[in-house]
Amino acid sequence: MNRTRHFITGLAVLASFWWTAAAAPVVAQPLKLWLVPPQGEATAGSQIRFTLFIENPDTSPVTTTAYARLMVTLKTPASFKVVEAVPAGGNPDYAITIPAQGFAKQVYTLPLPEQMSGNVSLSIEAFNTGPVLFAAAPMPVEMQTEQVALGEKESVFQPFLDNLSAYEPMYFLFGVDPGMDKSKFQVSFRYKLFNEPFDSQIVNGFVDGFHLAYTQTSHWDLSSDSEPFDDTSYKPELFYLVPKIDLNTPWVTAFGLKTGFQHESNGKGGDDSRSTNFAYVEPIMAFHLTDQYYLALAPKLWTYVGNDDETNPDLFEYRGYFDFHLKLGNPEGFVLDTHTHWAEAGLSFLTDLSYPLTSLLKSRLNLYLHLQYFNGYAERLLEYQKKEEIIRLGVSITR
């Protein structure tokens, strides 16, 4: 059977969007900004000063408070922090006047975090200033006298923890129909491999997209006395993400591309062993529809690489080569998330509907009420040839 004829093209979905608002003065000609890094010696854990020059190319003076307080991004190869900078020796809420076709000079102070030493980059992302570099000495041991919370102290030993984040949805769901034997939970994380390790911004921009990921999906029979796990899929992954590709189209909120390689196995041996590998490419596009509603589409196309032809030789007939992912909703309300697979055996459909419990219960419980419906094949590797229809209900922490 010719496998390549099963490739199908289409649209699909993944919701991802970032919205950034920056306060900036309204002038006939935009103001121009130049950063000057801290001069002299800087030490982690101490106050540092930097300078901002603001040029007004217009023929009229400009008075603004937009530069009174600044959120400054600090980066090293091992850490990332955003801190507030205020004018040195002045009222942090006062207005700055930039003369017509002239400059204003403003000196700011900010606290340099204790663990931030070595080569440090400083930028004001809200105003697209671009980074400037300075060197910071480690904080002397004798200065480390203040007692801190345990989580903050443990971060000394975890300088790369900021690189770890959620990946696929994470949930715990009870089987409703046909029953509790179809319960399921999933955990998923991703890890960014690099934090500007090179002197070249071009090289740093390239390696910034490399990520490791791990997803584990377990099917749990909660109706049996021993409550066994029927099957579990272990999915380590290496992927490369291009988070922003500018299409110069006003109706597109976000567009990016992800490509990678994933292994999937159920960790069993003998006749119950199942495993496969696939390489994929996934363009991701998001749209702002109206008010707080967004739509994301992510068609994913893959090919099998080194599939286990002894235990699951015909997996492609049930999984196919294409997933249409659509995500629609309000980040503060309902979100509908669907995956549709086409394969020779038939259509498979997974849909998730979630709603924040903070809105539902008027509380601070940071979970989502989560309803899931599946109809199709190969949700579980062990019995990938069996068609199932399942309804689940539970909670999720990411969606």
Structure description:
There is one protein chain. The chain has about 400 residues and is mainly beta. It folds into two domains: about 30-135, Immunoglobulin-like; about 160-399, Beta Barrel (Outer membrane phospholipase (ompla), Chain C). It is about 5% helix and about 50% strand. The chain is built from four helices and 23 strands. The chain has helices at about 150-155, 200-205, 315-320, 355-360, and strands at about 30-35, 40-45, 45-55, 60-65, 70-75, 80-85, 95-100, 100-110, 120-125, 130-135, 165, 170-175, 185-190, 210-220, 230-240, 255-265, 275-290, 295-305, 320-330, 335-345, 345-355, 370-375, 390-399. It has a twelve-stranded antiparallel beta barrel. The two termini are about 40 Å apart.
Key words describing this protein structure:
single chain; 399 residues; mainly beta; Immunoglobulin-like; Outer membrane phospholipase (ompla), Chain C; 2 domains; twelve-stranded antiparallel barrel; eight-stranded mixed beta sheet; 5% helix; disordered N terminus
Strand-helix topology:
Layout: E1 32-36, E2 42-43, E3 47-56, E4 62-64, E5 70-76, E6 79-87, E7 96-98, E8 102-111, E9 118-123, E10 132-137, H1 150-154, E11 164-166, E12 170-177, E13 183-192, H2 201-207, E14 210-220, E15 229-242, E16 254-265, E17 275-290, E18 293-304, H3 316-319, E19 322-329, E20 335-343, E21 346-356, H4 357-360, E22 368-376, E23 388-398
